[in-house]
Amino acid sequence: MAKGSSGFVFGLTAAALAAVSFLAYQASATVPASFSKPQATASATASVSQAPSVDPNPAALPAGTGTGERVVYSVDAGRVWLVGAHDRVLRTFTVTPGSLAPFPGTYPVTSRSNSITGTDGTPIEHVVRFTAVDGVAIGFSAAVGVPRSGADTDVRTGGIRESRTDGDAMWQFATIGVPVVVIR
Q1: Residue range 44-77, pLDDT digits in tens
Q2: Which helix (H) or strand (E) holds 167?
Q3: Angle (CA) 143 145 151, round 5°
Q4: What is the CA 4 to chain-centroid distance, rounded?
Q5: What three-state secondary structure class fits 172?
Q6: Rounded Cα distance, 143 and 119, in Å
Q7: Mean per-residue pLDDT over the chain, rounded
Q8: Per-residue DSSP letter, 50
Q9: What confidence score (pLDDT) does residue 108 get?
Q10: How many CA atoms lie within 13 A of 48 on its CB side?
Q11: Which of 23, 106, 113, 144 is the S-S candidate for 123 at Cβ 3.0 to 4.6 Å?
Q12: Whole-angstrom distance, CA of residue 136 vs CA of residue 22
């Protein structure tokens, strides 16, 4: 080999080692935690996952919903939290919304009815109202004698249906003036 070609070979070798090292680093960064060795030092940078995150506790109270005693209602999750003193969740449960949804915001409980007939003709109890949309009252209620179901698309309803057991808890908790925080 000629004397000038040894520099060329050295350059190619260095470039190949650099490429292999870079690819090895990329591969090690994508190895799941269950396949990697535990490390004794903590990293100062956070890793970003390409997979969607899954909330380990979907019933956990969402952040940013205020403080103090309140009802929190997530329209998108179809879930309610009854929050007591010191921001302690007293109860959480799923609900079935009516055909009209309240806008995000904070509303006081304005009226309550122990037992009435809903706008869809269903007997309901423990109605806790907190706002209106297009003239239709929005509130929580429990159907009496029939399972809760999705909204009848022919009738504009503002009833957010809960089980009778959950309705009892809401009735005891959400008295006139208690804030209802509506989030998406």
Answers
A1: 333 333 444 455 677 899 999 999 999 999 999 9
A2: helix 164-173
A3: 40
A4: 66
A5: helix
A6: 12
A7: 78
A8: S
A9: 98
A10: 1
A11: 144
A12: 62
Q: For residues 110 and 43, give the distance between their C-alpha atoms in angstroms, rounded to a whole number.
A: 51
CB atoms within 10 A of CB 180: 24
What local confidence, expressed as pLDDT, does residue 4 receive? 57
The residue type of 8 is F
Question: 83 near 90, Cβ under 8 Å?
Answer: yes
Cα(73)–Cα(81) distance, rounded to whole angstroms? Answer: 7
Tens digits of residue pLDDT in 122-174:
899 999 999 999 999 999 999 998 655 554 557 889 999 999 999 999 999 99
Best CA proximity match to 83, nearest among 164, 177, 155, 173: 173
Q: CB neighbours (10 Å) of residue 106?
A: 14
Could you tell me the strand order of the sheet in which 105-108 lies?
A: 89-94, 79-83, 70-74, 179-183, 105-108
Please give the domain boundaries of the chain with CATH numbers for all domains: 70-183 (2.40.440.10)
Kindly give, in sequence order, each residue whose CB lies less than 8 Å from that of residue 9, ignoring residues fewer than 6 positions away.
Answer: 1
Q: Do 104 and 73 meet the contact criterion of CB atoms below 8 Å apart?
A: no
